[in-house]
Amino acid sequence: MTQVSFDTLQASEALEDAGISREQARAISLVVRKSHEVADIATKRDLEDVRKDLTAQIIEVRKDLSAEITNVRKDMEITRKDLQLEMSGIRAEQKLIRWMLGAGILGILSLVVKAFLMPAL
């Protein structure tokens, strides 16, 4: 933090003009200056510097976040393609199972028909 400027000569002259003795005006001015030296006061420039630093940090975070989002999107696309391949394999297996069930049901029906209808003929 920078220091706030305080003109002790001008302050003591203003106090003298107001009717305070020279020694008292000088003492008051010195006390005020010392209090300014001790105080940790942020100036407008300090705040502007902090704002610039924060803006730079925000820009960096945005860049990093944007890169991370891009990576996540790539990973999601790869996962989507993997799932599509896996699902196509499952669909093929389902078709095969349907055909096998259909053939099995037809076989059972033919046996039932043969067992019950053929001896009667």
Task: Write up this protein.
The protein is an all-alpha fold and 121 residues long. It is built from three helices and no strands. The chain has two domains: 41 residues; 79 residues. The longest helix is centred in the middle third of the chain and has 73 residues. 2% of the residues are buried. The model has no long low-confidence stretch (mean pLDDT 87).
What layout of secondary structure does this protein have?
Elements lengths: L7 H10 L4 H17 L5 H73 L5
Short description:
With 121 residues, this protein is mostly helical. Helix content is 83%, strand content 0%.
Strand content: under 5%
Number of domains: 2
Number of continuous helical runs? 3
Task: Note the run of SSEs as H and E.
Answer: HHH
Secondary structure: number of strands: 0
Let me know the average pLDDT: 87
Shape: rod-shaped
Distance between the termini: 112 Å
Largest sheet: none
Q: What class, by secondary structure content?
A: mainly alpha
Assembly type? single chain
Binned, the helix content reads: over 70%
Flag low-confidence runs: none
Q: Which radius of gyration do the C-alpha atoms yield?
A: 45 Å
